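Hi support team,

I've been running sequence recovery on a batch of backbones for a student project. Most finish fine, but this one hangs at about 90% for roughly twenty minutes before it completes. I'm not sure whether the input is malformed or the queue is just slow. I've pasted the structure tokens below so you can try to reproduce it. Let me know if you need the job ID as well.

Thanks,
M.K.
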């Protein structure tokens, strides 16, 4: 069942952020754009490359009014230990949510029940906490965080310009489309 267009269910969790343990809830996803990035586990192989890549895009995304949240089924304590022991993870400034109960992974429908781990899922949520994009990758396929920038710019454009849509490979400032009967069969 697709989560596109649906508001995320309520949850509360513990997280690690910049040297502190904090409380996070679904309410934190409201009032701004959010990227929620699920990954299988701390202290693994592909995961630190992805999370470091997200950090590399963090300032650009913040300039767009976006906050990043990473989530695994590890605890917030494990996130801190990983942060303290890994050069790649030690760079991370965004919130790392612990989901040992698997509740958040189930809400986002990314939990591998047999393994007890989250799949590689990336979600863009609008300021109402409504899912606008979903990307799920197999465990061995890492994601490219730079693609989030254009996706968010397109989502923000569509939200701010009702009646317009962004075509494939759209970049900020490029032409958009206005769906109408006149365009049917002409593109």
């Amino acid at each position: 069942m697709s989560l596109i267009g649906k508001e995320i269910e309520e949850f509360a969790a513990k997280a690690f952020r910049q040297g502190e343990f904090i409380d996070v809830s679904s309410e934190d996803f409201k009032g701004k754009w959010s990227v929620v990035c699920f990954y299988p586990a701390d202290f693994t192989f592909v995961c630190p490359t992805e999370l470091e890549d997200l950090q590399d895009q963090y300032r650009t995304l913040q300039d767009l009014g976006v906050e990043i949240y990473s989530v695994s089924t590890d605890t917030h304590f494990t996130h801190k230990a990983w942060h303290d022991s890994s050069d790649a993870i030690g760079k991370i400034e965004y919130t790392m949510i612990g989901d040992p109960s698997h509740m958040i992974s189930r809400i986002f429908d990314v939990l591998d029940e047999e393994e007890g781990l989250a799949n590689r899922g990336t979600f863009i949520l609008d300021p109402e906490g409504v899912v606008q994009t979903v990307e799920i990758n197999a465990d061995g396929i890492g994601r490219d965080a730079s693609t989030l920038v254009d996706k968010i710019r397109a989502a923000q454009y569509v939200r701010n310009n009702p009646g317009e849509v962004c075509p494939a490979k759209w970049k900020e400032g490029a032409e958009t489309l206005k769906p109408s009967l006149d365009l049917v069969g002409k593109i």
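--
Follow-up from support: It reproduced on our side and the slowdown came from queue contention, not your input. The beta strands are 12-17, 20-25, 33-38, 66-72, 95-98, 111-112, 117-118, 120-125, 131-137. No action needed from you.
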